[in-house]
Amino acid sequence: MRKLMFFTIGFGAACVICAYAWLCSGLLLPAAVFGALFCVGMIAGKRIKLLKPAALICFGISLGLLWFQTYSGGYLSCVSGLDGLQADVTARCTDYSYETEYGSAVEGFLYLEGKPYRAKFYVNGNYDMEPGDVLKGRFRLRLTTNDSPEGPTFHQGKGIFLLAYQKEDAQLLKLSETPFWAYPAILRQSLEDLIDGAFPTDASPFAKALLLGDRSEIDYETNTSFQISGIAHVIAVSGLHVTILFTLINMLCLKRRWLVAAVSLPLLVLFAAVTGFSPSVVRACIMQSLMILATLLDKEYDGPTELSFAALVMLVMNPLVITSVSFQLSVGCIVGIFLFQKRIYDWLYGRICSREKPRFAKMKRWLASSVSVTLSAMALTTPLSAWYFGSVSLIGIVTNLLTLWVISFIFYGIMLVCALGIAVPAAASAVAAVIAWPVRYVLFTAKLLSAFPLAAVYTRSVYIVAWLVFCYLLLAVFLLSKNKQPGRLFGCVLFGLTVALAASWLEPFTDDCRMTVLNVGQGQSIILQSEGKTYLVDCGGDYDEDAADLAAETLLSQGISRINGLILTHFDTDHAGGAEFLLSRIPADMIFVPDYYDSRGVRVLLEEEYPDRMYPVMDDIRLTYGETDISIFGPVVPDSGNESSLAVLFECKNCDILITGDRSGFGERMLLKTADIPQVDVLVAGHHGARDSTCEELLAAVQPGIAVISVGENNYGHPSAEVLNRLNAYGCLVYRTDLHGNVILRR
What we know:
Blueprint: H1 3-21, H2 28-44, H3 51-74, H4 77-80, E1 86-93, E2 98-99, E3 103-112, E4 115-124, E5 134-143, E6 160-166, E7 171-173, H5 183-198, H6 204-212, H7 220-229, H8 239-252, H9 257-274, H10 279-296, H11 303-317, H12 325-352, H13 361-389, E8 391-393, H14 396-423, H15 425-450, E9 456-458, H16 462-480, H17 486-506, E10 514-517, E11 524-530, E12 533-540, H18 544-557, E13 563-567, H19 573-576, H20 579-585, E14 588-594, H21 602-609, E15 614-617, E16 621-625, E17 628-633, E18 647-651, E19 656-659, H22 665-674, E20 682-684, H23 696-702, E21 706-709, H24 721-729, E22 733-736, H25 737-740, E23 743-746
């Protein structure tokens, strides 16, 4: 019996409950209860064997609860009261800085009560910070755990518990001696410089991502194509890369156990450090090290037990690693392989290979092995991908078959380039020029397959979510049944997908008019649909790429791969920042923008990319199709900030909708004066509910029954109490994206 495995399951379950529900105190009683259940189970387990695993799980839960309370009450107690405070900080940089929209950012650590705490520092201006540098200044501190009123961030899973934002002048001190712990980051930067110098510009970002896990230079389109095609794991350093590295070491050491152990163990530690101790890499390095030691000592290697040990070590080091997407995907992938890979392989091999002298037996074994590994890994990672990334790749098996065979070759080639780059740069460039071609092959394959219709489906559709639940219920029934028939399982899954897609695509056609105000945070993105045509008003939010993804995936979930028009009310980032990324996924027949100079460069970029589709608007425009009219009202005063916002009146059979962009009361009154604005059913409140917008005169003129406010949480005091009071006085039913999420109005 795998005692450690059952114990770790319980320990991990306790960490999940505590981390997501943020239970940091009062855990002694439940820990005692589970401890008692452990004792009872072990005693009763002498007669009923099934009670022993349950008892070990209870024991794991008990110790997990105690450890989480100890960790949060001991180690995290020093930072728990710092949220929102301003303090004079002295920090040591542990990595190189990078540019942000407002300055620079760097990871580092600071000491509180003699304990080191990892933190991320955001400074104003461009600072050239390096590992070992000392950063001093006054910063506003923000917790990354649930203790913060702003909510947790993904940093907690990496062990970063503080974010620090510069409030006053900062001082950067360059020390004469570099600390030893800084050398992995320095080595990583040196390798990146070698790759940049040797590889062609179209291949170097992929090379750095594959070898070092640095995806900062992977562009949005490439990232999206990898996600849709199902091979995003290739550019996220994980167990695959650790296995490739160990295979090379094992081969170079001629499979001699002592030599392999002597070389690989320190190199695995170095590789984990150079790649930033990503949870997936740490998990893989621990398991690989255990396998090496087991081979060296002639001990049996048991995969589930070693995975349990690796996970337990990581949870003890930081219980909040359980919230890391990297950790969850890594563990889920390995568990899926342990559970299903052999069964799938045996079934596939029995179908594609005849028992008597099979032709191309080696290739068929490779095919069965590749498909079985991919399917088994997807079994438990698919729900996680659907939850975190909102998509499920349907073409991932094909993409993996076409690309994974060449990844090892590329990985080894990049390592060779780095080795040659130190002594013979010319030879490194020559080798890199060769390696660049298989890199281009991978990039081309991902881009080609991601462009296929139905390459992926998206959980923006409730029907796709229902289909996923249906699939896992079917899988449970299949695993419990005695007469297992994989063909029927696949047929039911395919039938369920067909029904889900049909429902997703047909539903919009059941409405005469539909408006979807997307929850993009502090920004605006609105889908207008009627009579089979679709227009998008604005595409921006807290994060440009996220706003584009939300809009694109909502449209793709409805079977819409091209829109009739994109209307940008103005060029502020929270309204237009995602347009470039959206159009790389969803083309638009027409792009309407206000006709004035754009200091942010959005207009210039779009005019360069889509010159034949651009329609700068100065005078009012009216679009008509069927029983629908779309009026686009030009800027009040050219180049006058928010008053330059286009206004949009969407009039269809059963509903009239007015959108005023970021116009203030002045711009709204000018709109009433220069245009014939009727009473409307729906008003999208101007400027996210700012106090000086959605004025009395506008409300009196249009008399909306419903008002929608596109706004993020805790942003600039939006929506203001004055606007909410005015809307209430006019009897408006108010919907807010910060409270209600996506707002969908159907008529």
